[in-house]
């Protein structure tokens, strides 16, 4: 017994100690499992969302900018002049321009007249000019976009999210807007990074001008500018002045800026996952330490017998540290499975590509063993310091 212990003997003996109490082992490993699962699930959700954004960015293109009303020096809003789309379109490097106008106040969209007026399902109303579709490189998945005829009629085109919320999956249906029925002539594919358009119901600009504006000039909500390839940086620098030469306070946002802003949210989600996982691992480590202390107290007779047969204190300590690390490793393995399942479920619900945090998954077993070994250190030292006669007597 006093000879050198082989690794196989240490692991085998530790496994016998872990397997002898399956219920306690499962409870002790649960904290570590939850910690690892939280890390993998939340960092995986962030990675999946980032992959989704990159795919949208590639589909949308790196040459889109959005010009919107800005704020003047007095912090008051400065609207875009009605000539902004034309002056922007004449600038060198601009390929296409699309315009969204602000809808008249008080318009809400309902599937039927039976829907309560307060339940708008988060669907907004916007007024589109026919050039918007080409500027966005958007795709109509059902029906068609506005033309010279339909833009003057009570017709609507639904964004992808708006169609889903309204329960409409094909053109030819109708919706109730401002107390009037509008025929749905088209449904758009998801608009990518410009996701505010997905939840919108678009109406024709001429119909709104002739029937709902009462002679008022349209208010431009945004001008979508598609630059020529490789020219977005140059074009973005002059858009504010081009939109309103007299008061160049327009807000100019590039698609890359939108991507970066949403990536910050993903980084925050990943950081939250690491923080929650760290807290859960700490709780799990305390649970394992408590379990090992109880195990030492219950197995004093075994410890005393082994010490009497010649086992050294270091060998006793090694066994208990190994048991603790093995407990934590089992929890880590379960946590990896739970975390991957959670990340996959999140990606499936959000309809995003699954992107697993490989680095976190590979580090999980190492972190688990380190937590377990550290948690079992004090109980192992306590077991090693038990005197053989006192341990046998107390048992």
Structure characterization notes:
The chain is an alpha+beta fold and 395 residues long. The chain has two domains: 7-57 and 261-394, no CATH class; 70-249, no CATH class. Helix content is 54%, strand content 16%. The chain is built from 13 helices and 13 strands. The chain has helices at residues 7-19, 22-60, 84-89, 132-136, 160-166, 205-211, 232-243, 255-298, 300-308, 313-349, 358-375, 377-384, 388-394, and strands at 64-68, 70-71, 77-78, 94-102, 109-110, 124-128, 140-143, 155-158, 174-177, 180-188, 200-204, 220-227, 251-254. Helix 2 (22-60) crosses helix 10, helix 2 runs antiparallel to helix 11 and helix 10 (313-349) runs antiparallel to helix 12 (377-384). Residues 25-232 form the MacB-like periplasmic core domain. Pfam families: FtsX, MacB_PCD. Keywords: Cell membrane, Membrane, Transmembrane, Transmembrane helix. Belongs to the ABC-4 integral membrane protein family.
Unreliable stretches: none
Q: Hey, roughly how much beta strand do the residues contain?
A: 15-25%
Count of DSSP-assigned helices:
13
Overall number of domains: 2
Q: Secondary-structure element sequence?
A: HHEEEHEEEHEEHEEEHEHEHHHHHH
Head-to-tail CA distance between termini: 21 Å
Could you say which structural class the secondary elements and strand pairing correspond to?
Answer: alpha+beta
Helix content: 40-55%
**Biggest pleated-sheet summary:** 11 strands, mixed
The average pLDDT value, as a whole number, equals 83
* Radius of gyration, CA atoms, in whole angstroms: 32 Å
Record field, number of beta strands: 13
The 3D shape can be described as elongated
């Amino acid at each position: 017994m006093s000879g050198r212990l082989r690794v196989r003997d240490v692991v085998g003996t530790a496994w016998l100690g872990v397997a002898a109490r399956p219920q306690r082992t499962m409870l002790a490993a649960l904290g570590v499992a939850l910690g690892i699962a939280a890390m993998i699930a939340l960092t995986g959700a962030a990675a999946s969302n980032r992959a989704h954004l990159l795919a949208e960015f590639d589909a949308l293109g790196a040459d889109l900018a959005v010009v919107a009303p800005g704020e003047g020096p007095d912090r008051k809003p400065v609207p875009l002049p009605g000539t902004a789309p034309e002056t922007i379109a004449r600038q060198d490097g601009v390929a296409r321009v699309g315009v969204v106008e602000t809808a008249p106040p008080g318009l809400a969209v309902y599937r039927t007249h039976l829907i309560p007026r307060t339940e708008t399902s988060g669907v907004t109303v916007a007024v589109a000019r026919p050039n918007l579709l080409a500027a966005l490189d958007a795709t109509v998945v059902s029906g068609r976009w506005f033309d010279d005829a339909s833009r003057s009629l009570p017709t609507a085109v639904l964004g992808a999210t708006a169609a889903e919320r309204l329960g409409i999956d094909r053109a030819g249906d109708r919706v109730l807007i401002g107390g009037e029925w509008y025929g749905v002539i088209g449904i758009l594919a998801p608009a990518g990074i410009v996701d505010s358009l997905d939840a919108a119901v678009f109406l024709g600009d001429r119909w709104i001008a002739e029937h709902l504006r009462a002679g008022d000039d349209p208010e431009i909500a945004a001008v979508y500018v598609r630059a020529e390839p490789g020219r977005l940086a140059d074009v973005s620098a002059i858009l504010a002045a081009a939109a309103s030469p007299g008061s160049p306070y327009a807000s100019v946002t590039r698609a890359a800026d939108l991507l970066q802003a949403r990536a910050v949210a993903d980084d925050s989600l990943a950081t939250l996952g690491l923080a929650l996982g760290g807290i859960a691992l700490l709780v799990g480590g305390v649970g394992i330490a408590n379990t090992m202390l109880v195990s030492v107290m219950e197995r004093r007779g075994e410890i005393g017998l082994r010490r009497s047969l010649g086992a050294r204190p270091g060998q006793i300590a090694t066994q208990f540290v190994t048991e603790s690390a093995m407990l934590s490793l089992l929890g880590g393995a379960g946590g990896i499975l739970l975390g991957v399942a959670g990340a996959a479920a999140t990606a499936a619900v959000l309809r995003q590509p699954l992107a697993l945090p490989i680095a976190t998954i590979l580090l999980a077993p190492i972190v688990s063993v380190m937590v377990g070994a550290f948690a079992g250190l004090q109980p192992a030292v306590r077991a090693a310091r038990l005197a053989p006669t006192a341990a046998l007597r107390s048992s």
